[in-house]
Amino acid sequence: MPLAGLSACAGPQSILDPAGPAARTIAALWWGMLAYGTLALVVVAALWWRGLHRRHAPPADTTRPAWASRWLLVGGVLWPTFSIVVLLAFGMPAGHGIQALPLPAGAPRITVDVHARRWTWLVHYAGRTTPLVNELRMPAGVPVDVRVHADDVIHSFWVPRLQGKVDAIPGRVNALRLQADTPGVHRGQCAEFCGTGHAHMVLNVIVMPPADFARWMKEPAP
Ligand SMILES: [Cu+2]
Fold it and tell me: pLDDT tens for residues 189-219?
């Protein structure tokens, strides 16, 4: 998106440069929250500025005037309540829409098992005996259900241009769905501190044309 380019926020690991439907939903929510938060900041700063520069003597009567209670009611109760309702009205459908909900029977999909281990990602495909290391291959335009496992400590699976993050927790399997619009390479990163090698726990997601992916899946694994 042009705005992302302007703010230098494009790149292989940017949530502001989405490359799939789920990431687009998250980015739209992020821009909306930024706009609303900016509006709130401007209004509060303007009121603060006005209060700072008001020149009048303090009232002789120190009992609280009616307008002060009205400010408290509007600014302290009604506006925050309205803001939370607006956030939920957009946030809940967005969160629901990016979940790995069951797909219709017969819909094309791929399932991979990703094992997080200090400090690598092992990506297993059904029918291939050898896992990929720090690399996930997927076809463009097809939902890929990722089953996220942890083999030692808690990690977090995150490919910002395609989806939100999900924790990898020992003893549990968490699910997440990736989908990419077009072929390309995206960068994933462990998003939960897991030890000294955490910053280097990178996953390259290679999105291939569907025919190339099908050919690669049929190749004998090395
Ligand atoms: Cu980590």
Answer: 999 999 999 999 999 999 999 999 999 998 8
CB contact burial 132-168 (16+ within 10 A = b; e otherwise): beebbbbbbebbbbbebbbeebebbbbbbbbbbbbbb
Distance 168 CA to ligand 1 centre (A): 10
**Which residues crowd ion ligand 1, with CB under 5 Å?**
155, 190, 194, 198, 201
pTM of the model: 0.83
89-142 pLDDT tens trace: 999 999 998 888 888 777 778 999 999 999 999 999 988 889 999 999 999 999
Phi, psi for 202 (deg, rounded to 5): -105, 145
| Rounded distance from Cα 178 to ligand 1 centre (Å) | 20
In the reported structure, the alpha carbon of residue 79 is separated from the centroid of ligand 1 by a whole-number distance in angstroms of 38
Architecture of domain 110-218: Sandwich (2.60)
Cα(41) to centroid of ligand 1, in Å? 34
